[in-house]
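Bit of a strange request maybe. I'm writing a small parser for C-alpha cell strings and I need a real example to test against, not something I typed by hand. Could someone generate the C-alpha cells for this chain?
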Amino acid sequence: MSTAVTFTAPFMPQFAVPVGVSVGVALGVSVPLLALALNELKLAVRDLRELRCADGCVVKVDGVVETGTGERIGVRLQTGKPVELVLADPKSDAARACVDKVKQAYARLKVLDEVKKKGYKKVKEEVLPDGSIRVVVQRWQ
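Reply from user aminoacidic:
Good idea to test on real output. This should exercise your parser:
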C-alpha cells in the first residue's frame, strides 16, 4: 500500500525585509541546501567580502552572487543568526525577482529533503502556470 502526499508551492521560507539593503531569512536555513538552490539556478557565489550598494555604501558579506542581468546580491553568514541576502540595489525589481527564485528553489529542495527523511520518494514534479511548483511524493507501507 502506498501513501501519496502532494505539496504545492508557494511553500516559501519567510524572508523579512528590514529597512536598508538586507533581505534576511527568518527560518534557519541549511547552507548546503542554499548552495544547491543557487547551483540549480546557475548562480555562482563569488568569493568577495564586500558589496558596494547603489547608494555608495559598502557592506561586509561572505560572498556575492551576480545574476545574468548584472544584479549583485551579497550573502552574509553569521553564527546563530539567519542567512542574509543583501541587495546591492534594494529598489531593483530584477534583484527582488532573483531573491524570489532563490527562495522558491530553496523551499523545493527543503521539502524534498524533509520528505526523503520521512521515507517518501518524489513521484512527480511540475511547474504550474502561476510559477508555483507541485511535488507529488509517495511512501510504501
